[in-house]
């Protein structure tokens, strides 16, 4: 039996491209609904004797980027997480219809791996909401996915500020209803970075972050200085939070830029995981930087980046890019081989863009 697996990371689906009044949604990052539908339909229509698996390696949903009316409840409770999930499904209905059609075929399966932007997937009712809409065989994983010498995980656990406590995902003591035990980095993105984004919409799409901070010194000085002090204030404020991971991770924020600068592609961490676990191929997401690195001795690291626009300040990939890259895993003599591929979809005379 032929087997194919396709890995996509970091789509960051929000509430949809347009608001109820028809205006453009400024908080929606994903604009490739049509191309995603084409991608899913193309691979769903393969030979029914071929086992096809779609693996969404974290941050498929952007549950931590909240609309103004969601700010009060946030994403901590199960109820709020379900509401956010339903809003995302409604905003990208054609995508979920395509997933349902894909999963209705024989020998098809969908895997969702937890990322730092979609922690709501930890709630059973959120999983049930997705199962009810997509149907078919769906697997939810909160850590990693390992098979046939292949190791797949999102990668946020490799960054201290985004690291979840896998032994304590939920908090109950002192709360009216259970809440998610989110790490400091999630609150940094939700309550700090996305506020800054209202003035600099591109700020969460610039890589690498340390180079951007240096760029600000020469090109956006007062904005950079002002937000540097706001960042320090945010660290101090979160140090006194009721939430244990938010409180404990506050001072880790001081070293966050140093940690990212050490290995912005997570290549060093990927190599270490391969050596420790004895896997041959590792696939990560999280960094938004596509890479295929061969470490020698038949050890490989692949990262498909993200399906959103990214501005790179690194000379190796300088400029703004939008590339719909994914990992294709196929088997030859029962041995998996992984390659990065770029999805182009059908030719169109024109299509809408997000500038």
Characterization of this structure:
- The protein is an alpha/beta fold and 355 residues long.
- It has one domain: Purple Acid Phosphatase, chain A, domain 2.
- It contains 10 helices and 16 strands.
- Strands 4-3-2-1-15-16 form a 6-stranded mixed beta sheet, covered by helices on one side. The protein has a 5-stranded mixed beta sheet with strand order 5-6-10-12-11, with helices on one face. A 3-stranded mixed beta sheet has the order 9-13-14.
- α1 runs parallel beside α3, α2 runs parallel beside α4 and α6 packs across α7.
- The longest helix has 18 residues.
- The mean pLDDT is 89.
Briefly characterize the structure.
This protein has helices at 33-44, 78-91, 93-103, 124-134, 184-197, 209-219, 221-238, 244-248, 256-262, 267-277; strands spanning 3-8, 51-57, 108-113, 138-141, 144-147, 150-153, 170-171, 179-180, 206-207, 281-283, 291-296, 299-303, 310-312, 319-321, 325-332, 335-342. It is of the alpha/beta class.
């Amino acid at each position: 039996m032929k087997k194919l697996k396709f890995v996509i990371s970091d789509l960051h689906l929000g509430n949809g491209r347009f608001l109820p009044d028809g205006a453009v949604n400024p908080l929606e990052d994903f604009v490739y609904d049509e191309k995603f539908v084409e991608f899913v339909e193309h691979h769903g229509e393969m030979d029914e004797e071929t086992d096809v698996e779609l693996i969404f390696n974290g941050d498929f949903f952007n549950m931590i980027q909240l609309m103004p009316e969601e700010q009060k409840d946030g994403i901590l409770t199960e109820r709020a997480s379900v509401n956010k999930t339903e809003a995302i499904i409604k905003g990208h209905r054609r995508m979920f219809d395509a997933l349902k059609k894909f999963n209705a075929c024989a020998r098809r399966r969908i895997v969702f791996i937890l990322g730092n932007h979609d922690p709501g997937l930890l709630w059973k009712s959120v999983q049930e909401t997705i199962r009810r809409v997509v149907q078919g065989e769906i697997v939810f994983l909160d850590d990693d996915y390992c098979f046939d010498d292949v190791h797949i995980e999102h990668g946020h656990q490799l960054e201290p500020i985004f690291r979840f406590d896998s032994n304590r995902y939920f908090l109950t003591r002192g709360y009216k209803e259970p809440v998610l035990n989110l790490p400091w980095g999630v609150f940094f993105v939700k309550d700090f970075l996305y506020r800054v984004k209202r003035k600099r919409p591109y700020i969460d799409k610039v890589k690498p972050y340390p180079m951007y901070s240096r760029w600000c010194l020469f090109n956006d000085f007062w904005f950079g200085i002002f937000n540097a002090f706001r960042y320090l204030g945010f660290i101090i404020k979160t140090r006194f939070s009721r939430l244990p991971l938010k409180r404990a991770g506050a001072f880790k924020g001081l070293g966050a830029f140093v940690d990212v600068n050490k290995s912005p592609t997570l290549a060093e961490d990927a190599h270490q995981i391969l050596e420790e676990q004895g896997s041959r191929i590792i696939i990560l997401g999280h960094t938004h930087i596509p890479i295929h690195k061969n470490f020698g001795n038949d050890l490989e690291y692949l990262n498909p980046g993200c399906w959103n626009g990214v501005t790179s300040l690194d000379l190796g990939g300088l400029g703004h890019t939008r590339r719909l890259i994914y990992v294709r895993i196929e088997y030859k003599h029962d041995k998996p081989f992984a390659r990065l591929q770029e999805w182009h979809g059908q030719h169109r005379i024109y299509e809408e863009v997000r500038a």
